[in-house]
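ligand=zinc ion
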Amino acid sequence: MPGPISEAVVARVDFGACVLLLEDGGLLGARARGKLMGPRKALGNTIVVGDRVRWEPTGTSGHREGEAVVTAVDPRRNVFSRRSSANRPGEQVVAANIDQVVLVASMAEPEFSRGLADRVLCQAEHAGLPARLALNKVDLAPQSGDAAPQSILDDYLRAGVPGHCLCAKTGEGLDDLRRACQGRRSLFVGHSGVGKSTLLNALVPRLQLLEGAVNEKTGKGRHTTTAAILVRPEPDYELIDTPGVRVFALWGIGPRDLDHAYREFRPFLGACRFGDCRHAGEPDCAVRAATDAGTIAPRRYASYVKLLSELEDERDPA
Ligand code: GDP
Ligand code: ZN
């Protein structure tokens, strides 16, 4: 056992319990000290995957050997959140203290979902996080034209989001993505079916073992479908795997600040004729002009207008 007070990173949270990843790679099941818990006795957002925490061994008899109690959570550098899809809408912090968001999407089966991609990228921008696009199943895509992977990646490159053409089945592009993930902590997010598991297993050959070891520590069987999970295949190389999503609802971004979440719009904000321009058809709009000039990708602009009207409808239901 390390000293009486030690630090660790949270690898998984399961209602009132969590799993800690220690500096030496060891895993420890832990509970939170009572005063850290919310009124519902669930951890909610109090302790999330990626949190750096202080812990003490429980030591008292009656506890399972190797259990710990989390006594404090360090301040977070950043959080990546979404709006909870549960009955009670609210913030769901997916993970904290992240270095980059890797959005996994596929070219086909399922087809590339611009709406989901742009929501995830907006949320990353809102969190102040760099993002990259991992475009999988390029073997199923046309090789030229507007629907080709390069054309899609080009839209995002202009938005400051680098991308990768990948085929998880053959391994194409994997080395580049692996290099882009080494030395940092990456959060992987994607629509279900895009091949995220295939991709992560190819990136990290021992992934299933590592995830299995974390899951075993919860002592509650496999509730993995709803939980994010952090693994560290090598020192300084960490991945956070999240369950595939079907919808992704924004948290903390409203219709008034959506334009700031489209990173490539920023240089033009403030240059429109109207100070409260929504960039959705107003005259002398600088964002629109930048789109017509080709600086902003027309498909990104179109997705902004669509997302804006969805957010306005939500706020102001007809
Ligand atoms: P997940 O839900 O995102 O974790 O997706 P899976 O990894 O389970 O993959 C979904 C399906 O896509 C499986 O049938 C995979 O074999 C297939 N798949 C994954 N990567 C590729 C790829 O690069 N090309 C093709 N054609 N199929 C792939
Ligand atoms: Zn405007």
